[in-house]
Amino acid sequence: MRPADRTPALVSRLPQVGTTIFTVMSALATEHQAVNLGQGFPDFACDPRLLDAVDAAMRAGHNQYPPMPGVPALRQAMADKVRALYGLEIDANTEITVTAGATQAILTAILAVVHPGDEVIVLEPCYDSYVPNIELAGGVVVRVPLTPGTFRPNFDAISAAITPRTRAILINSPHNPSGMVWSEAEMRRLEEILAPTDVLLISDEVYEHMVFDGQQHQSAARFPGLAGRAFIVSSFGKTYHVTGWKIGTVVAPAPLMAEFRKVHQFNVFTVNTPMQHALAAYMADPAPYLQLSDFYAAKRDRFRAGLAKTRFRLLPSQGTYFQCVDISTLAVPERDLPEADFCQWLTREIGVAAIPLSAFYGDGFDQKVVRFCFAKKDETLDEGIRRLARL
Ligand code: PMP
Ligand code: GLN
Fold it and tell me: I want to staple 326 with a disulfide (CB 3.0 to 4.6 A). Which of 5, 103, 278, 313 is the partner?
């Protein structure tokens, strides 16, 4: 036994923070053998060619520290992709760094540029790591709501939130949790609003290859006025069905990247070597990421067609692998529970895990909407729908 009185008391740096909703709901799903449509991760295998490439990299001896910013071949492959898809020329030596997933990229960018007292704008609902990241940097979180109901950016509210103390704004398109995708006009509007300011942009684009119905992903890289001030964050975990690999990249202009790397090198220093070599080799074929939108659109359509036979009201899903539903149209009395309690009940009693949207708001705003993840085998989705049809 560890004597408790030997451990000094401390004041938490993150007093509001508990265990993330994704971890909580996945544990509950396992406990109750529920179909886990909560935490966002695929339940199917990645391309075996990618696994072979990791094996080959390890056997070729790529098992020691790589260069601090990442394996050059991977940085070059990403730079080539950014040029081909978004028309931005970047220097693979000075303007891209390989990170331990998007989560580390975002934290590192914030720690690199936010001084205590600086204001950072987030658009709510937002991914749950952003706010604690800003708080760890000593920044002041400025929450601007996305338009209720549509989750589209409200530019009057964004403009009004910008002050001389604003250091950065964080955006995320395609958007977790809503599945909303920013249009070209919206990105241009942001570009105009930021033009007269020194506000930096952190653009979380981890779902960049999951955009449906003929829309295009509007990367910040496409807009010179944004790319010149942006950290653009990508995640191989999402793109290649390997969320557990925790590997991503961040692209930024050289002066911003220099500051980013100062923090990165004393945070993780480097990211595991064989996966980087494997990804660099695998990226030679663009088909897997070019086909990803169609792959997920088919899953979305299957899941929506099934849900259409239930009492849930479906919200649009323009991108990501998430589908939000309104629970207030259900016939069961539990529809009146707060979203988080409803999700617990749904997991325990109906056997399907979901994520409450309230988890993406600082004040726990409850709009009777929950999020399902459809990055699942068809049989998983069908079983989830079969269970949900009881409601
Ligand atoms: N941003 C968003 C919007 C996400 O949904 C996720 C996925 N968990 C991340 C960042 C983190 O990505 P990674 O697993 O690469 O750290
Ligand atoms: N991004 C994933 C989601 O939104 C979860 C990642 C995590 O568990 N931190 O479900």
Answer: 313
